[in-house]
Amino acid sequence: MKIEHIAMYVNDLELAKQFFEKYMGGKSNDMYHNEKTGFKSYFLTFDDGARLELMNKPDMEDTYKSLKRTGFIHIAFSVGSKEKVDLLTEEMKKDGYEVISGPRTTGDGYYESCIVAIEGNQIEITI
Question: What pTM, to 2 d.p., does this model score?
Fold first, then answer.
């Protein structure tokens, strides 16, 4: 069994798509738009075949996203080396994203950094 895809609702569909294309190398399909419901989505595919669906619809609820909330808390992207973790973290920091940890080696052995990026959601960058 494998996870087929992960989905997230976002307010700014285009900005979210651009983020995952620029920093994580995602390749997007054409936008799906259900004119009847107003639902819109993109599927982004990453090098290893993992997929992320970005979605938007009218009248979404956008509540505060505590960094200690229950439920899904981050998406982790493996970039292949410590150097790439460091470089991507620095690039995202220069572009104005908040680095909340790292780059560092965690107690469980991961070399990672964690960024607050798309609409308050955390992105982890790891080897």
Answer: 0.92
